[in-house]
């Protein structure tokens, strides 16, 4: 068993086999952060949140200022329902990496889920300030404005998102609950659909939604490859 075999099983969605490989590798390389990163991702996809958190704890212990690891740890905390702790991690990532628009977009998504709509708006606005061509940030900002009943502002952001993405509007369709895919690096960005009521939070839904927060290749980094693209349908 070697690292390449583990990555292959991981990308194929054979998470049980990947778990065996990465666990064996960690037994021989206890200080290798990449092994903990992949095993943590595998454990997360298997629904073993507490075990995954232990691996991300170890990652942050090995590299305490790695903002990708900090953000990944925040994802796991969120999936475990520990939103306050997750927000603390995303705050720390943004403080360490303040010029990266993705830090604000990902934190805005979490704030939206927590019901802090004004906080989400502020973060999306900051993300757009840092990257004025981020169509998805405009679209998501419109969604939050719409929740506040500010239709005119929401429509203006949706229009801007359409202009930047160059995709014509399509009717909303519901994402099948069974739709899943293995995690892999993103090849391109896809707009987020407009959602009137967010589905129940699951690992699959979280991966599919948060992935769409980034459009610039240079700011996707490791966190982006953690979030697999299945959320490709366009909003109304």
Description:
- Helix 3 (33-45) runs antiparallel to helix 4 (49-62), helix 6 packs antiparallel against helix 7 (101-114) and helix 7 (101-114) runs antiparallel to helix 8 (117-130).
- The protein has 12 helices and no strands.
- It folds into 2 domains: 1-64, Alpha Horseshoe (Serine Threonine Protein Phosphatase 5, Tetratricopeptide repeat), CATH 1.25.40.10; 65-236, Serine Threonine Protein Phosphatase 5, Tetratricopeptide repeat, CATH 1.25.40.
- The longest helix has 15 residues, at 151-165.
- Helices cover 63% and strands 0% of the residues.
- By secondary structure, it is an all-alpha fold.
- It has helices spanning 3-12, 15-28, 33-45, 49-62, 67-79, 83-96, 101-114, 117-130, 135-147, 151-165, 203-210, 221-226.
- 43% of the residues are buried.
Keywords:
Serine Threonine Protein Phosphatase 5, Tetratricopeptide repeat, 12 helices, single chain, 236 residues, elongated, 0% strand, mainly alpha
Total number of beta strands: 0
Mean pLDDT: 78
CATH C-level category of the largest domain: Mainly Alpha
For this structure, what is the CATH homologous superfamily of the largest domain? Tetratricopeptide repeat domain
Brief account:
The protein has helices at 3-12, 15-28, 33-45, 49-62, 67-79, 83-96, 101-114, 117-130, 135-147, 151-165, 203-210, 221-226. With 236 residues, the protein is an all-alpha fold. The protein folds into two domains: 1-64, Tetratricopeptide repeat domain (Serine Threonine Protein Phosphatase 5, Tetratricopeptide repeat, Alpha Horseshoe), CATH 1.25.40; 65-236, Tetratricopeptide repeat domain (Serine Threonine Protein Phosphatase 5, Tetratricopeptide repeat, Alpha Horseshoe), CATH 1.25.40.
């Amino acid at each position: 068993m070697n690292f390449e075999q583990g990555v292959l099983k991981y990308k194929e969605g054979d998470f049980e086999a990947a778990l065996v490989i990465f666990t064996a590798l960690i037994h021989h390389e206890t200080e290798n952060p990449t092994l903990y990163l992949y095993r943590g991702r595998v454990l997360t996809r298997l629904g073993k949140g507490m075990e995954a958190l232990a691996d991300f704890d170890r990652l942050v212990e090995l590299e305490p200022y790695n903002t990708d690891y900090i953000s990944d740890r925040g994802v796991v905390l969120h999936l475990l329902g520990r939103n306050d702790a997750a927000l603390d991690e995303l705050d720390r990532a943004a403080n360490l990496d303040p010029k990266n628009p993705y830090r604000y977009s990902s934190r805005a998504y979490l704030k939206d889920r927590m019901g802090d709509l004004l906080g989400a708006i502020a973060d999306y606005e900051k993300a757009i300030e840092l990257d004025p061509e981020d169509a998805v940030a405009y679209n998501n900002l419109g969604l939050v404005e719409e929740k506040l009943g500010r239709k005119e502002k929401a429509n203006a952001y949706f229009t801007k998102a359409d202009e930047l993405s160059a995709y014509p509007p399509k009717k909303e369709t519901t994402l099948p609950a069974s739709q899943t895919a293995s995690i892999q690096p993103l090849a391109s960005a896809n707009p987020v659909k407009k959602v009137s009521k967010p589905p129940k939070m699951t690992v699959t839904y979280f991966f599919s939604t948060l992935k769409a927060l980034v459009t610039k290749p240079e700011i996707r980094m490791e966190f982006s490859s953690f979030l697999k693209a299945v959320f490709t349908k366009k909003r109304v």
